Amino acid sequence: MALNMNDIQQEILRLKKEKDICILAHSYQGHEIIETSDFTGDSYKLSVDATKVTSKNIVFCGVHFMAETAKMLSPEKNVYLANPAAGCPMAEQMDPEMICEIKKREPDRKVVAYINTTAALKTVCDVCVTSSSAVKIVSAMPEKKLLFIPDCNLGSFVQKACPDKDIMLLNGGCPVHAAVLPEEVAEAKAVHPNALVLVHPECRPAISEQADYVGSTTGIINYAVKSDAKEFIIGTEMSIAEHLQYECPDKKFYVLSKKIMCPNMKLTTLMDLYNICRAIGTDEAKLNEIVMDSELIAKARVCIDEMLRLGG
Ligand code: 13P
Ligand code: SF4
């Protein structure tokens, strides 16, 4: 007999119990994945959640650097990425050699890395931040001179919020959020004049400046849920507008731009999640397993621990 989506979700729930699996899913995942997960949220929340997992196995639905972060925070657990092809292009934009060269020229700058970076790059950075914790962490740092990598849009958002800091930026960023053009805000407002504009700080500064609220995935969700307003234009990955529509059926959500769809976040399907849950305990699961050298974990974890200390 053919399985429907609900049957597959039920099978995943059964396999979770049978094999002692905890599922972490970033909010950019599809609704059917979010429904079967134990922890969901933005990058910061999922990092904190990863430290609380008691199961032997973690399956991450998101992109590679997120599963790598979960592995670093729970090295004794088996961590699997539901779709091993899901990577974040921003995480690969800069390499450790390039940052070490800048550090030689600017030795008094502390390096702040957006969590969307590889573990190898994290080893040469001083502290990690996420979109929801960046302003808090940078404000709490005693140093004034910083190098913020890789996202220059998030970096300039932090610079505006922390005018006493001298933040050097490089030319990196999220290709999905950066593809949205400032004029698309006026176009969306013309169609939905009563809607509030909520955007992610990975968008260009000319977009953030026009928004009613700028914040992380979780920040946008919380703002929309608590707001008395009834209509919202959502300037982050389009799945957030969908999740909000499920959560607030009496409100209306519109996507700021049709371009704001992350193909990497969309790679993971419910079938991928089902297949990895089935494979755990067999050689087949090795394809999805995050394997990291203990020396790399020890070096890269320093700036993640610093993030949790300053952002907590
Ligand atoms: P947050 O999870 O911090 O909102 O970041 C969004 C993102 O682009 C993750 O890749
Ligand atoms: Fe990377 Fe941007 Fe996709 Fe997030 S939305 S995973 S930053 S490409």
Can you describe this structure?
The chain is of the alpha/beta class and 312 residues long. It folds into 3 domains: 5-86 and 265-292, 3-Layer(aba) Sandwich (Rossmann fold); 96-173, NadA-like (Rossmann fold), CATH 3.40.50.10800; 180-259, 3-Layer(aba) Sandwich (Rossmann fold), CATH 3.40.50. The protein is 42% helix and 16% strand. The protein contains 15 helices and 12 strands. It has helices spanning 5-19, 31-34, 43-50, 64-73, 96-105, 119-122, 134-140, 152-161, 175-178, 183-191, 205-208, 217-226, 239-247, 270-279, 294-311; strands spanning 21-26, 39-41, 57-61, 78-81, 110-114, 127-129, 145-149, 166-169, 196-199, 213-214, 231-235, 252-255. The strands form 3 sheets. A 4-stranded parallel β-sheet has the order 2-1-3-4, sandwiched between helices. Strands 6-5-7-8 form a 4-stranded parallel β-sheet. Strands 10-9-11-12 form a 4-stranded parallel β-sheet, sandwiched between helices. Strand 11, helix 13 and strand 12 form a beta-alpha-beta unit. Helix 1 (5-19) packs parallel to helix 14 (270-279), helix 3 (43-50) runs parallel beside helix 4 (64-73) and helix 4 crosses helix 15 (294-311). It is globular, with a radius of gyration of 20 Å. The mean pLDDT is 96. Bound molecules: 1,3-dihydroxyacetonephosphate and iron/sulfur cluster. Iron/sulfur cluster binds at residues 63, 88-90, 116, 174-177, 237, 262, 264-265.
Main attributes?
312 residues; alpha/beta; Rossmann fold; four-stranded parallel sheet; 15 helices; 42% helix; 16% strand; binds 1,3-dihydroxyacetonephosphate
